[in-house]
Design brief:
Elements: H1 2-12, E1 22-26, E2 30-33, E3 42-46, E4 51-58, E5 61-65, E6 71-75, E7 79-80, E8 84-87, E9 91-95, E10 104-109, E11 113-120, E12 124-128, E13 134-138, E14 142-143
Antiparallel strand pairs: 1-4, 1-7, 2-3, 4-5, 5-6, 8-11, 8-14, 9-10, 11-12, 12-13
Length: 145
C-alpha cells in the first residue's frame, strides 16, 4: 500500500523529501495565488528577498509558508537558491561573536531580511545584512533557518 501511495505521489509531480525543511528566498516581488495556476485567485504580492518554506513542489509551482504561517502558491521561477532569514522580534541584535557579551555590530528591525550564512551551536545564526555587515543573531529572533 505504501509503495502504491508513493507511486501515485510521484506520478502527480509532488516532491517528497526526508531531508530538513527547505527554505528559499523570493527573488523579486511577485503575486502569490490560492492555487498552482495563474487562473487561481491572487492573494497578495510578496516582496523580493522574503524567505519562505517550501511545503510542496509541483512542476512550475511551489506551495510556500511565510513567517506568519500563511500558505500560498508561487511560480518556482520566482524562488532563488539564496537562503534568507527574517527578523521576527521588534529588534534583533547582531553581535560580532556568538555571545551575549560580544559587541553589537548592528540592530535589525522586525521584517528585515538578511542572508543566512550558518547555524552556530548555542542557538546562534550567522547572518549578512544587504549592506555587507555580518554577525551573529539569536535564533529565537529570526525565522527561516
Amino acid at each position: 500500500m505504501k509503495r502504491l501511495l508513493l507511486m501515485c505521489i510521484a506520478a502527480t509531480g509532488y516532491s517528497l523529501s526526508a531531508n530538513a525543511i527547505e527554505y528559499r528566498t523570493v527573488s523579486t516581488a511577485t503575486v502569490l495565488y490560492d492555487a498552482p495556476s495563474q487562473r487561481g485567485s491572487r492573494l497578495f504580492v510578496i516582496k523580493g528577498e522574503t524567505p519562505v518554506e517550501v511545503v510542496v513542489s509541483l512542476e512550475g509551482w511551489s506551495k510556500v509558508r511565510d513567517a506568519e504561517g500563511g500558505l500560498a502558491w508561487i511560480e518556482k521561477k520566482y524562488l532563488s537558491e539564496k537562503h534568507s532569514v527574517m527578523v521576527t522580534t521588534d529588534r534583533a541584535e547582531v553581535r560580532q561573536k556568538a555571545e551575549e557579551s560580544s559587541p553589537l555590530v548592528f540592530e535589525a528591525v522586525k521584517h528585515v531580511a538578511m542572508e543566512y550564512l550558518e547555524a552556530v551551536p548555542g542557538g546562534w545564526v550567522k547572518v549578512r545584512h544587504r549592506d555587507g555587515q555580518t554577525g551573529f543573531v539569536r535564533a529565537n529572533q529570526i525565522w527561516g533557518y
